[in-house]
Amino acid sequence: MRVSGENLWPGELVTWSAGEVSAHADRLAAVYRAAFAAYGETDDDTAAFRHRSLPTHTGRDDFRCVVALDGDDLVGFGYGYQGAPGQYWTDRVADLAPPAVVRGWLGGHFEVVELAVLPECQGRGLGGALHDALLAGLPHPAALLSTWQYDTPARRLYLRRGWQPLAELPDATLMGTRLPLTGTARPA
Ligand SMILES: CC(C)(COP(=O)(O)OP(=O)(O)OC[C@H]1O[C@@H](n2cnc3c(N)ncnc32)[C@H](O)[C@@H]1OP(=O)(O)O)[C@@H](O)C(=O)NCCC(=O)NCCS
């Protein structure tokens, strides 16, 4: 399905169903590998993404994946789903975040799992456009994610778009934003 709406990147943003994601899992893994290489992610990490994370995540409630296409080339993607107890990430946050954060943010949340853009396509607003399309019109009260605890383009993107750091977990910052998004700051 073509995603309507403005973005600064001139290519095409498309929503892929769970079936389409499964069919194109190798292409998504290739983008993942290239995007995360700078962060020390290994071939084993890419294999885990391809063979464990994706097949598990596509089956979750409210799974949504938005991809960026440049002609036939897949150049970026973002995906998430509704987080729920019994899932690794939600349970980990419930265990490690302060009780007030857990009470105020967990439950019915949309979990942003991955956002990735090929290095050669970064810095042109594509990540921001994928982010906006991924969260547009969701019925969930809030979205949550975890990201690196140091300054990265991803962390800056989230802060620029109004995400709040909610808690420092042992190896990541938990961030949240209420939905629907308001006052999204687009890159200059
Ligand atoms: C995070 C990520 C998806 C962002 O993708 P992107 O396409 O570069 O995102 P944007 O172009 O929207 O924003 C990136 C930068 O480009 C700038 N930018 C965007 N459009 C621009 C334009 N038209 N002119 C100049 N600069 C622009 C933004 O201001 C931003 O600058 P900053 O990082 O200094 O704040 C990408 O860096 C990535 O794949 N990283 C590796 C994977 C990752 O970290 N994923 C998130 C895990 S939590």
Q: How would you describe this protein?
A:
This protein has 188 residues and is an alpha+beta fold. It has one domain (12-178): Gcn5-related N-acetyltransferase (GNAT) (Aminopeptidase, 3-Layer(aba) Sandwich). Helix content is 36%, strand content 26%. It contains seven helices and seven strands. It has a seven-stranded mixed β-sheet. Helix 2 (25-36) packs across helix 3 (43-57). The longest helix has 15 residues, at 43-57. Mean pLDDT is 93; it is low at 1-6. Bound molecules: coenzyme A (COA). Coenzyme A is lined by residues 8, 35-36, 115-117, 122-128, 147, 152-154, 156-157, 187. The site of coenzyme A has 20 residues, from helix 2, strand 4, helix 6 and helix 7. InterPro entries: Acyl_CoA_acyltransferase, GNAT_dom. Residues 13-180 form the N-acetyltransferase domain. GO terms for molecular function: acyltransferase activity, transferring groups other than amino-acyl groups.
